[in-house]
Specification:
Blueprint lengths: L1 H27 L10 H19 L10 E3 L5 E10 L4 E8 L8 E5 L11 H7 L4 E7 L14 H15 L3 E6 L3 H14 L7 E5 L11 H8 L2 H8 L1 E2 L10 E3 L1 H11 L1 H16 L8 H9 L5 E2 H13 L9 E2 L2 E2 L9 E7 L12 H5 L8 E6 L11 H17 L18
Parallel strand pairs: 4-5, 4-6, 6-7, 7-13, 13-14
Antiparallel strand pairs: 1-2, 2-3, 3-5, 8-9, 9-10, 11-12
Length: 425
Amino acid sequence: MRYMATYDLMDTVRNTNQWLGASALAMASYPVFAMTPNPMLQWMRAWGEVTERTFQRMVVKPDWGIRTFTCEDGKDHLVNIETVVERPFGDLIHFNVAGREEQKRKVLLVAPMSGHYATLLRSTVKSLIVNCEVYITDWHNARDIPVSDGKFDIEDYTLYLVDFMKEMGPDTHVIAVCQPAPLTLAATAYLAEEDPKAQPRSLTLIGGPINPDANATEVTDFGNRVTMGQLEETMIQRVGFKYPGVGRKVYPGLLQLASFMSMNADRHSKAFQDQIARVVRDEASDHDAHNRFYDEYLAVMDMPAEFYLSTVDRIFKKCEIAKNEFVVAGRKVDMSKITTVAIKTVEGDKDDITAPGQCVFALELCTGLPDSKKASHVEPGAGHYGIFAGKSWRNNIRPLVLDFIDANSDAPKAARKPANKNNAA
């Protein structure tokens, strides 16, 4: 009950702040107050508007917002989001562009389960849907999963990826972003032994902690500094009575968000102060830059406790992937069994979450893969977010990834603009 009470207390605090914001907005917006203009009422209204939206977004799953796509025929085609495989902890979904010929590049985008929804990769999906058939892993909020559906740890996550790859077939090109990179590598190695014909053609690992000890960051230092007992005591709670997953042990999204915000507290505080000032001056809008960013950033999901704890223990502390000692369902996964899947790693020169050196270590693990099937890229000046979204991804990394896909595919290359010749390889 102690863990459940704490979970409900956090949700109560969030709900109270949302209510305070809504109350301030409603009170300061009474028409009668317009008769006696007062700057304090304007500030109160602005504070209420920003506060209500902020705390409301914390429990709302963002929409993909990808409704139409303009194809080469100049027409807008509807984008249907279809569930291909449905599972308790996550689905495999497909962005099907209605009326468009099926694209030769079939891409599985493996989204992180690290506090935010898969919609965090919305811009990545938009950039790939131009000339790819895009599939993505859509992980569910643990608070909404009944206890009767059982546990979900990194071994279960790996087996989910194995099943998704089998469903998509051998012509698939997998792109794993950040947290799932080591487990996606493990899933590929698992397939190499269990069902070699189901392996994907290529695997692109973007900013993933394959070997966290290769280049230390604050994230790896934290993982090594705290004990598993401390983590379980301070981070793990049981879902309250409000949600379908009542009683399930989770790492709450609200607690994760508090950690995210504390890392750059001054910058976030200034961003909200500036937004309140813009609302006062009537310069803000529903989809301005601030709201677009924070509607996504504030939308957090609970992680299953087993998944979070096993990630810290086995990926960061024991480095089972880096030591090639990872075990799934009682079977040791040997990375050297990967002999046909082309692998490319992408890292950001300024990445302070997964520093350069951590991801490229995957190529050292794959001793059975010829050098002709290996590639790596370090993007100059790019941080963690920039290597899968933003200018660095669009202008430099995406063209390189598509070239890599084409070079390891039976399909002919699609016509497109040449990549930037100044890329660092």
